[in-house]
Fold each of these.
Amino acid sequence: MVAETRQAIESVRALQRGGEGPPPPGARAPPDEWPSLRDALARGSLELQHALRVAIVATAAALLAAGLHLERSYWATVTVILVLQPHAVATVRRALQRVAGTVIGGIAAALIARTVQQPLLLGPLLFLFAFAGVAVRRINYAVFAALVTPVFVILAEMNAGGLHLTEARILDTVLGGALALAGALILWPAAISSGCPR
């Protein structure tokens, strides 16, 4: 919340000055020089901590999903990798966007699968969803997730021959998002929050 408040204050100041606004919370300033691999792997480096965090949480997600016998267990692992960010603020935002977008997209996928039966109509519709989703990805990740979820779910359901994967996609995404949040808050949380922009 502190980072969000700081972001809002800096945005207002930038508007008053007519200058460029601050980078979004969790964004990293461009480096003065390219970091070396030795710097990235140095003890206590943000990159090393984040790499370890992603590896630990993604492995935990894969093991948990396998233990629960989830049908598309890789969806939970992929969610962890996509949601975890180097900074806690960015991780929380991405988790909320990913889960909300997937739930909305899952509902849309169920409606599309039940109402559009003709492949000649379904193909162009999925093309439009994929096109629009990728176009807005950098603008709003939640909208991106909502638009591409029907594409993945419907294509997977067509290959699986059923309409049961919407629920699996939502549950796997919620599981992956929850694990990513837990990883961001438990594994080196001080280092994550200290990296927020000032």
Amino acid sequence: MKLFRALLELQSYRALEAREGDVGLDLAREHDPDLIILDLALPDISGIEVIRALKSDDRTGHIPIVVITASMPDEEARIRAAGADGFMTKPIATAEFLTVMRSFLENDRGA
């Protein structure tokens, strides 16, 4: 997470971090972020539950969600069916991370 945060901040994006799903849901509702990067391995609730909660909430349903997971690529269909907009498996190369983030974030900057 530290690396991802640093990469985003180098691109002039502000990053908020939540280590639990419930905290992440609250932050998303409060701050209306441009993008949510979600690791499915959370200590309190499943990442799939977080995706479903975000997508079913009028306040957060419009926010793109990119899932980062150690699961196998064959899990992608299930994760996307839950509502994820993007998908990356660990380990993630810096170039891949930046390419995926830009594909979602640059539209918000009018690029």
Amino acid sequence: MFLDADDRLVPEGLELLAKPMRADRSIGLGYGKLAIIDGDGEGSGKPGQWPEPFDVTRHYQKQNQIPSCCLMRRELFFRAGGYRQHTCPAEDAELWARIGLVGGSPSLLTNKVVYEYRAHGNSLSAHVRGGGTPEPDWLGWIPAVNGGHMPFASIIPGTDKSHPVLDYDIPAISIITPVGDSHVDLLVDCIESVLGQVDPRWEHIVVDDTEDGRLSEHGGIPYRERYPHIKWVRSPRVHNVSAARNAGAKIARARWLCFLDADDYLLRDYISIMAESCLQCSSEGKLFYSDWIERPEGKAHQAEIWNLRRLMNRALFAVTFVHPKAAWELVEGFDEELSLWEDWDYTIKLALAGYTGVRIKKPLFAYRYDTGVRREESLENSDWLHKEITKKYEAVIPKKRRG
């Protein structure tokens, strides 16, 4: 049970919920009525009309059915993945939705008051109700609610259900994320964006490039426990993003690779669109890249159309593109002796090996412009870097296009 610091549990509140849940193991989450109190803790003590008996259809239409103070089974909380910060201040309603997808049936267990809710203008929920803070799209990153696969245990009625098993299914795309010390806390948004994909044909490999090598233990609930589907790899050369990416690609099981930096994140149809583009392509001589959203401004940025001559002079798109693992193997991965602009160099190697790029004219990921320490260092040394990289390929003759 989670009780906010400005609310109060009534003396018999816990027993009103625990007793029926002990008697009926099919109830995964139980709640009762609440009474409103003011800033001084005064109120009538009488229950209001809300919350009402749980209506699953209404909840998945973004009408929250459950108060923040309720009783849930511990195993369901962890199986669902706990709270997600990016949905605050609707993080409780979003969690209730995911608990329903892992088989937790909510129930109004009593019409008596279980806790007293303090109504005052300083709460996050009050700011949302007053229009000061926009309500987050708390169903926006749940695949099953947005056209994705429905978990087998879901309580949503009348749906075709599936049971994707990330540990066993062969993925279409392996997503590889290197993480340095400056991006440890940003990783959660990156991971959640992969989990939020409407298409489940992916695997996520996170490469620990931090100084202490304990990335998977980070957080109140360690990353390893919160996200058991992730494959964790230690970078063989610490503080070397090229080595980290290569280490992840080496163990990737999918036919196609995508390198996603820890401070960026995917939009929810990235895998769906990219996987279909790959499957519909008759040749494995292609790489697919897309437009992106600039953060924090929120503007859409258009990638440049593929052109080998222009590519030899500058990067045309970000490193978050999809290409065959066979291509990574052919060009021997990223150059681990380059500490900056290694992604542009990698794209040049692919192009000279005969691979061509196809632009997807839609933003499919978000690129943060305010968190890149290496990006700023690259800009400061851009003249020198440009000369060093272009000099490497002056005498190289491009191979014939692969298709």
